[in-house]
């Protein structure tokens, strides 16, 4: 006699077909539309919903006027169920070898301006050689909101991973970077030793998307009893470098992230400690196994490794 029979346990195997039904119901928010999509009768769809309610212990969809609205439990399940169904379809789908020469696809990358200007030319060249039918669409990154990745609007994103990043996102470190000082050629700081006092005494352009006027560099200066004068605040490193190139302003920017942008300018190590940052590549798990997406990720990694 088995253990389960000895103790009177009753084990039931859930009907995994209900996952497909639940996925369609949550996507459509309507029994009638879900029935049409699954080619079922309305009564059969209603019975399936009843089974789902019994299985999950939640009403899932409740009446609101003439329509139905999802319960908090249904909203919580929506993305998980969709991912499970997609993974199941991927498992059962015959594997096909990726033909890059015949691939026609547009990938959307959410990055900063500095990333595009510094790494974009080489990345576009590599993509063109491997897959001439692939187009890259670079969009601006005004914040760290993960919604575009979750919704499939964006294929890849680069940047520093923040606390607000969705926990399910896949992350791959691209490179580490450090902040340096940059001034125009002929600037007083382009000659002689750069001491904390000389650096702080200059007029500075500060980069902040949120409009802040202080950061780790200012904290390091403060520990020495120094304070720099922030003359202006801009939203990106290209703008900061453009201002420094045309004036006596001092820009403090990440070194590798701005390599091409600093051509013809004088760069120097900061005279105070500043934390290094890690630039990472982010994508949603739904695209993790996609062959074309995997190819593009490897290309981004190789491009960043090649530009030192």
Short descriptors:
alpha/beta, Arc Repressor Mutant, subunit A, D-Maltodextrin-Binding Protein, domain 2, 5-stranded mixed sheet, 11 helices, disordered N terminus
Folded structure, characterized:
The termini are far apart. α2 (17-28) packs across α4 and α2 (17-28) crosses α5 (72-92). This protein folds into three domains: 3-92, Arc Repressor Mutant, subunit A (Orthogonal Bundle); 100-177 and 278-306, Periplasmic binding protein-like II (D-Maltodextrin-Binding Protein, domain 2); 179-275, D-Maltodextrin-Binding Protein, domain 2 (3-Layer(aba) Sandwich). It has 308 residues and is α/β, with parallel strands linked by helices. The protein is built from eleven helices and twelve strands. The longest helix is centred in the first third of the chain and has 21 residues, at 72-92. The protein is 39% helix and 21% strand. Strands 4-3-5-12-6 form a five-stranded mixed beta sheet, covered by helices on one side. Strands 9-8-10-7-11 form a five-stranded mixed beta sheet. Strands 1-2 form a two-stranded antiparallel ribbon. The chain has helices at 3-6, 17-28, 31-38, 42-56, 72-92, 113-130, 147-150, 196-201, 216-222, 237-245, 291-306; strands spanning 61-64, 67-70, 105-111, 134-140, 156-159, 170-177, 179-183, 203-207, 229-234, 250-254, 266-269, 277-283. A hairpin with a 2-residue loop joins β1 and β2.
């Amino acid at each position: 006699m088995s253990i389960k029979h000895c103790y009177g346990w009753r084990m039931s195997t859930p009907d995994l077909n209900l996952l497909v039904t639940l996925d369609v119901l949550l996507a459509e928010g309507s029994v009638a539309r879900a029935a049409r999509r699954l080619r079922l009768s309305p009564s059969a769809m209603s019975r399936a919903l009843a089974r789902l309610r019994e299985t999950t212990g939640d009403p899932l969809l409740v009446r609101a006027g003439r329509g139905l609205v999802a319960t908090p439990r249904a909203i919580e399940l929506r993305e998980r169920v969709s991912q499970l169904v997609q993974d199941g379809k991927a498992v059962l789908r015959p594997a096909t070898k990726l033909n890059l020469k015949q691939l026609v696809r547009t990938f959307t990358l959410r990055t900063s301006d500095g990333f595009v200007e510094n790494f974009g030319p080489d990345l576009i060249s590599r993509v063109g050689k491997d897959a001439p039918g692939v187009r890259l669409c670079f969009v601006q990154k005004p914040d760290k909101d993960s919604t575009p990745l979750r919704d499939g609007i964006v294929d890849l994103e680069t940047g520093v991973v923040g606390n607000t990043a969705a926990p399910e996102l896949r992350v791959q470190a691209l490179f580490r970077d450090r902040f340096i000082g940059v001034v125009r050629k002929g600037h007083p700081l382009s000659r002689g030793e750069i001491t904390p006092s000389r650096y702080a005494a200059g007029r500075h352009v500060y980069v902040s998307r949120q409009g802040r006027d202080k950061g780790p560099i200012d904290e390091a200066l403060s520990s020495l009893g120094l304070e720099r004068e922030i003359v202006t605040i801009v939203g990106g490193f290209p703008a900061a470098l453009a201002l420094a190139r045309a004036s006596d302003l001092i820009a403090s920017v990440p070194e590798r992230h701005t390599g091409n942008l600093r051509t013809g300018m004088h760069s120097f190590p900061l005279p105070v400690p500043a934390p290094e940052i890690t630039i990472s590549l982010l994508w949603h798990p739904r695209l993790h196994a996609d062959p074309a997406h995997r190819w593009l990720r490897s290309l981004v990694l190789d491009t960043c490794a090649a530009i030192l």
